[in-house]
Design brief:
mainly alpha, 451 residues
Length: 451
C-alpha cells in the first residue's frame, strides 16, 4: 500500500529533508505547493506531512494552514467551548448589564474554583475512558472530616486538611484496587461509592448535621478574603509570558538542532502577545473590584501542573496511551495496573481538595455539602470543556473552560432571577451539544485517519 497515494512502494520514494521548504511541501524544488498557485494548502499535503509541526517553517501562513487542517479533520480542540463561552457571556450581558461587571466576575471565579478542581480529577479518569460518579460524595465526606476534626475535636488546621485530603487518596486507591484486581466496572464501583460515602458523611456529621467553620481561621480567610494586589497580579502575568517565550524558544532550538522544522520567531511572538492579552484583560477587569482570588490562582496552578504532568511526563504519556488502546499500551510495556491506580487516586484526591475549598468558601459544612448538583456539574464541566468520553483525548484546561461554562450559566440565570429548573435544563442542553460535537468530531478524525 502506498503512503503517498501512488503505486510506488514507500522505500522507492526517498523521505524529504524536513529542513527543505520545498520538500516539506511534498514537491520538488521549483514546483508550487498546490500545483498551480504556489500557496501552501495543508489539506493537499500527503497524509504523513499534514502534521502542523512539519509545515511550521512556513511561518504564520503555515500555522494558519495547520490549524485549518486540524479543524477540517475534526480535531476541534477547545474551539467549540471557547466559542460557546463567548456566546453565553454575550447573551447574559445583553440580558443583564451586571454580568460582566468586575464584582460579578470576581464572584464567578470564586464559584468556579471548587467545581473546577473536582472536574480536574474527572478529566484524568475520562482520559482512560472510565468514569467516577462519586466525586460529589467524596468531596462532601472530606469536608465533613475537616469540620468535625477542626471544629469539634480541636485538631490543628493543617492536620485536619491533611486528613480530608487523605480520605480522598485512600478512596481512590480503593477504587483502583477493585477495578484492577476484580475487573468491576468503574461505573458500578463509583456508583456504590456515591451512596456509601454519602452515608458515611452523614454518620461523621452526626445529629447536628451542620458545622460552621471559624470565620477568622486561615482557611476561610484564604477562600474568601485573600486577593492578589494589582502589582503582584501583573507581575505574575509578565512571569508567565516570559516563561512561555523561553520554553518555546528552547523547543525551537532543540528542533532546529535536530534538523526538524520549527515555528519561526514571528509565530512565537504572536502567540506570546495573544497570551498576554488573554491574561491581562481579565486581570484588569477583576482589579476593578477585589482582584484575583488566591483560591482561583491555586486552581489555575493545579490546572497548569496537571497539564504539564499529562503532556510532559512519562506518567502522562502512559495515561494517554492506556486511554487510546489499553492492550497496545500493555504490550508496549506500560504498567497498566499502576496507571489505573494512580488516576483513580488522583481523581478522588482532587475531589477531596475541591470539597475542602467549597467548605471554606461557604464557611460551613453540612449534610448537603458535595450534594445537590456538585457531582453532575463536575462531570459536565469536564465533558463540556472538551475531554472525550471515548478516552485518550483531552486536556487539563478542559476543566477550567468547562467549569467556567457551567458556573457562568448558573451565575447568569441567578442574576436573571430564574429558578433551578431552568438552570438544569439549560445545562443539560449544553452538555448534550458538547457530547454530540465530541461524537461527530471523533467520526471525522476516524475518516481522516487522526482518531
Amino acid at each position: 500500500m502506498s503512503l503517498h497515494g501512488s503505486g510506488t512502494r514507500p522505500q522507492d520514494t526517498p523521505r524529504p529533508d524536513s529542513t527543505d521548504p520545498a520538500a516539506v511541501n511534498g514537491t520538488t524544488p521549483g514546483t508550487p505547493a498546490n500545483g498551480d498557485t504556489g500557496t501552501t494548502d495543508a489539506a493537499q499535503l500527503p497524509a504523513d506531512l499534514q502534521d502542523e509541526r512539519l509545515i511550521a517553517g512556513h511561518g504564520i501562513s503555515g500555522a494558519i494552514a495547520a490549524f485549518t487542517s486540524r479543524l477540517r479533520s475534526g480535531d476541534l480542540g477547545s474551539v467549540p467551548v471557547v466559542v460557546g463561552l463567548i456566546i453565553i457571556w454575550a447573551v447574559f450581558q445583553i440580558a443583564n448589564s451586571s454580568f460582566l461587571s468586575s464584582r460579578n466576575l470576581v464572584n464567578l471565579t470564586l464559584q468556579t474554583t471548587s467545581v473546577g478542581v473536582i472536574a480536574l480529577g474527572i478529566v484524568l479518569v475520562l482520559l482512560l475512558g472510565e468514569i467516577d460518579l462519586s466525586v460529589g460524595s467524596v468531596s462532601g465526606l472530606s469536608a465533613a472530616v475537616l469540620g468535625v476534626t477542626f471544629v469539634n475535636q480541636g485538631w490543628p488546621l493543617l492536620l485536619s486538611l491533611l486528613a480530608g485530603v487523605a480520605i480522598g487518596l485512600v478512596i481512590g486507591l480503593f477504587y483502583g484496587a477493585l477495578y484492577t484486581r476484580f475487573g468491576v466496572p468503574s461505573f458500578v464501583i463509583t456508583l456504590a461509592g456515591l451512596l456509601g460515602f454519602l452515608g458515611l458523611q452523614l454518620l461523621v456529621l452526626g445529629k447536628e448535621g451542620s458545622l460552621n467553620l471559624p470565620y477568622d481561621s486561615a482557611l476561610v480567610g484564604f477562600a474568601t478574603r485573600s486577593f492578589l494586589s494589582p502589582a503582584l497580579a501583573y507581575g505574575l502575568i509578565a512571569v508567565v509570558v516570559a516563561a512561555y517565550v523561553v520554553t518555546r524558544l528552547r523547543a525551537r532550538g532543540a528542533r532546529a538542532s535536530a534538523g526538524l522544522s520549527a515555528a519561526p520567531n514571528s509565530v512565537i511572538a504572536i502567540k506570546a502577545g495573544a497570551l498576554a492579552v488573554v491574561l491581562l484583560i481579565p486581570v484588569l477587569i477583576l482589579n476593578g473590584d477585589r482582584g484575583v482570588s488566591s483560591m482561583f490562582l491555586l486552581f489555575l496552578a493545579l490546572v497548569v501542573g496537571t497539564d504539564l504532568a499529562v503532556r510532559r511526563t512519562r506518567w502522562g504519556r502512559s495515561v494517554m496511551a492506556v486511554g487510546g488502546n489499553v492492550e497496545a499500551a500493555r504490550r508496549a510495556g506500560i504498567n497498566v495496573r499502576m496507571i489505573y491506580l494512580s488516576v483513580f487516586a488522583a481523581c478522588s484526591t482532587f475531589a477531596a481538595v475541591g470539597g475542602l475549598l467549597a467548605a471554606a468558601r461557604l464557611v460551613a459544612v453540612n449534610q448537603s455539602s458535595g450534594g445537590t448538583d456538585t457531582n453532575l456539574n463536575a462531570i459536565a464541566a469536564a465533558v463540556i470543556g472538551g475531554t472525550s468520553l471515548f478516552g485518550g483525548r483531552g486536556s487539563a484546561y478542559s476543566a477550567l473552560l468547562g467549569a467556567l461554562v457551567i458556573m457562568s450559566i448558573s451565575n447568569g440565570l441567578a442574576l436573571l432571577s430564574l429558578n433551578s429548573s431552568v438552570r438544569y435544563m439549560v445545562t443539560a442542553g449544553v452538555l448534550l451539544i458538547a457530547v454530540t460535537i465530541d461524537s461527530l468530531s471523533r467520526r471525522s478524525r476516524q475518516a481522516h485517519g487522526r482518531a
